[in-house]
Amino acid sequence: MESKQTLIVFTPDNEPYLGRTLLFHFDQLISSLLEQNVDTAPTTHNAKLSDHQKMACLVIPQAISISLSIRELIRQGYLFGAHVLLRAVVERAAILLYLHYYPNEIDKWNKGWNYQDAPGLAKMFEAIQVKQGKLSTIPGHELTKSMNSLLHSKPDSGPWNIIELERGEYGYASSKILNRPELCDDLCGSVIPWIVVVQSMMVAYFPKENAP
Questions:
Q1: Is the predicted pLDDT of residue 110 greater than 60, yes or no?
Q2: What sections of the chain are H helices per DSSP?
Q3: Which of 123, 162, 202, 211 is 20 to 30 A off residue 114, Cα-Cα?
Q4: Residue 7: its pLDDT value, please?
């Protein structure tokens, strides 16, 4: 049975991790991303779009929406749930990058991006590293390991929702996590680069005419 506790809804002026440097940068990027989307989205309306642009019209808004969800979860102290959502943003950013580097793979997207046919996140990571000219690639499964643990509730996912209880004991949070700033920093530091990727892909798929 749940114990009775005061329900708290935080606002931008009293949220638990207000003032964290990486959270501030996360907020700045969100504002920039939304402004860019407001500028770009209307150019896709009633336009003749390529298959790649149709894909981007679906994936980019989803990535933005999930990023906003992560931000609101941070505000309310639901850091574990926000960490679980990280993979959803990363996967969409990776799809955008992968299909930008390997445009012929758009046929797999058009056919449904099915598990048996399309590359998984780990394989996309490895393929992207090759295109970026990495001398040696980090195995994809190493890059996705922590995200997979969180998503699939593996034993090593525990550190992301452990909290200190009364009398110095520890347990696993089932609700808000309000006193683990390092967990907030880890999340913001992890999601920020992928927001930048989404922004860059917005430009790549929908370049402005006559841009210098």
A1: yes
A2: 21-44, 51-75, 79-101, 106-110, 121-131, 140-152, 181-205
A3: 202
A4: 55
